[in-house]
Amino acid sequence: MPNMRDNAGGVELLRRHLPSGGNRFRLGGGAPGIERLEAALVGEAFSPHRHDTYAVGITLAGVQTFRYRGERRHCLPGEWHVLHPDELHDGAAGTEDGFGYRIIYLDPVLVRDALGGGPLPFVADPVIHAVPSHLAGFLTNIDEPLDDVEAAETATAIADVLRTHAAPSRRRPVALDMTAVRRVRALLSDDPTTRHRAEELEIVAGLDRWSVARQFRAAFGTSPTRFRTMRQLDMARRLIRTGRRLSDVAVMAGFADQAHLTRMFKRAYGLTPAAWATAVGTAHGHRLIRRS
């Protein structure tokens, strides 16, 4: 990784690559349940939004600021941030110079598997000043895909960091039938464009609808409805990258229309589909932050 504490040099890199108010994303290689991304942002950034994954990233240059659980946070170069699934947050540069970061989005089911079950860890303070040195290695060469061994190593490293920094839970654990909720998850994943009735989820799970809703959130950090919407948005992002018109993307991904797609997209990613497409489309061929 670059010398992440050389903030002046990092800011200069951002200035060279970005016009005022510009955003650039570079999507890295990943694996099932793991996405990696590099970003540089100047000016207005992300509006309030929620992921259905853990988001674990490192600030490379500039000052990253975000509101999380009612407080304004600042993440400096070399510091990590950890966001829990379904927690509302925004994101912006703390100075006019902009900021750059790399991040891993990790499916909660991988965290649960890596920890051998139990409640999903919740890290109350999202800014972490020190993590094991090997964790940064998973964000060094992000263009390379992860094989199954590397994916397991990545998930395990992040799960261990989450467990180390997790706040003690005062809540009574929800009793889980993981086989049942995994069947519901698989149904929603297989065809996210289909809106299933509660009765169908009950049949698949062998549980009543209240237990499905409660156990699904405890197991995966989000609701069945939001999980399905996020899989629709995954489909929409893939279609957008092929250059299809947004109106066509909306229909193909199962949204009512383009306006519906735009609302859901912005709630999930903090940007409109058009802004996201511009940021991703112009990122290829650029190296926003100096690569190792």
From TrEMBL:
GO molecular function annotation: DNA-binding transcription factor activity; sequence-specific DNA binding
Pfam families for this protein: AraC_binding, HTH_18
Domain HTH araC/xylS-type: 182-279
Keywords tagged on the record: Activator, DNA-binding, Transcription, Transcription regulation
The species this protein was found in: Sphaerimonospora thailandensis
Name of this chain's protein: AraC family transcriptional regulator
